[in-house]
Amino acid sequence: MYYFLKNSARIQISLDKYYLSFIESNTKCIVELNKSGFEILSLCNGKNTLDMIINQLYKRYPAEDTAIFIKEFLQTFENSKVVEKKAERYSGQNQVIYGTNEYYCPVSIMLELTNYCPLDCLHCYLGKKKNQHMGKNDLIKILESITSLGVQYIQLTGGEVLTYPHLEYAIDYLVSNHVQVNISTSGIIVNDNIIETVSKIKNTGGIIRVSLDGLPEYHNKIRQNKKSFQNATEFLKRIMTKKIPCEVATCIIDQNKEDIFELVKFTKELGVHKHAFELVYLQGNAQNNNIESNYRYRDFEILLEELSEEYDDKKFSISKAEECHEATNCGAGYKTYKISYDMKVTPCITMNYELGDLTESTFSEIISKHYESFQNLQAPCKMVCGDCELVKHCEMCMSKALQYKDSVKNCSWFKSQNVLVDKEQTYVKN
């Protein structure tokens, strides 16, 4: 009997780390492997029997219990339905290993497929749009590059991603390569074709996040479209009939507290599983329109605590839109990247440090050049920022700190991060 990794399972090498990923009950699971575990599973390519695997590894690990260890290890993954056995040897190419040990391979990519959006939201971080799509040939080039590295998660975004003419192609490609696909949308476009297209992400463990910034009157005003709330709600209802996990994202600006509670009550009753909140900062349209959250950060935290106490249960939760649980930084510039519609690579969706241009360099060339610099950055925190009045606004978010560094005298965080100081004139686009 020949050993195979099941279709959704794959191994990613990232520097000196090894990861096994697989889909279980429509949920993406990632397990870190030690070197011996990696060596065993890498031989589960449909070309090796148990005896063949044992013989190959015994040459490297000539211990008495090597065979027993391998049998027990493989049995564990058979029981969890990650490994399977077949009578017929696989004769074709069966790639199970992705990534490289030469540089840090990203875990997730934010792929901005288009800059076009039918809305002109007053608080949009993008600002004035050029109404351009990523070309299909460029899309194919990017998809091939990022899947070869074993990227686990792709967030498809825009502009309004539902307007992208090659959206179905992108989803089909990623689904066939067992990448978890997440989609961020305003939900403004609702039709049978769109619903069927985005529903294809279901078996990847994917999530659809829809923006709702308030009750109908407020949401329509901030989105400058009288049908935006109605369409977003209809979009959510139709997607949830497909049993795809849905989240709602809300930007806190100047909504009154009662309306925020009423909105959360509405989304919970609608059936979404998470409602995420974020503050609005002076960037893009928000800066042009002088729109900024009127909540101080501590008041924002208190609001989320009160919402959680009122509404959280086993099927529904309140959260921040972006949360960082790492000790040093969020991973921007080495764990995560954004690729824009015009082929520019930046560390994240809001940090406009241009790391490279995919029309001039390959993705591998760009990330291998920059990952060490960003990996070693310390994100803003109390230890670095001391008693700065904005420490809670910027905490663990380098993008926000870059936006606000000039609003305080002598930003101690920025001065301590030499790589950012050295490259500011080259990378930061004001």
Automatic annotation (TrEMBL):
Keyword match Metal-binding: yes
InterPro entries xrefs: 4Fe4S-binding_SPASM_dom, Aldolase_TIM, PQQD, PqqD_sf, Radical_SAM_PqqE_MftC-like, rSAM, rSAM_sf
Radical SAM core domain segment(s): 103-313
Signal peptide: none
Protein origin, superkingdom: Bacteria
PROSITE patterns xref list: RADICAL_SAM
Keywords (A to Z) from UniProt: Iron, Iron-sulfur, Metal-binding, S-adenosyl-L-methionine
GO molecular function: catalytic activity; iron-sulfur cluster binding; metal ion binding
Keyword Iron-sulfur: yes
Annotated transmembrane regions: none
Name of protein: Radical SAM core domain-containing protein
Species assigned in the record: Candidatus Enterococcus palustris
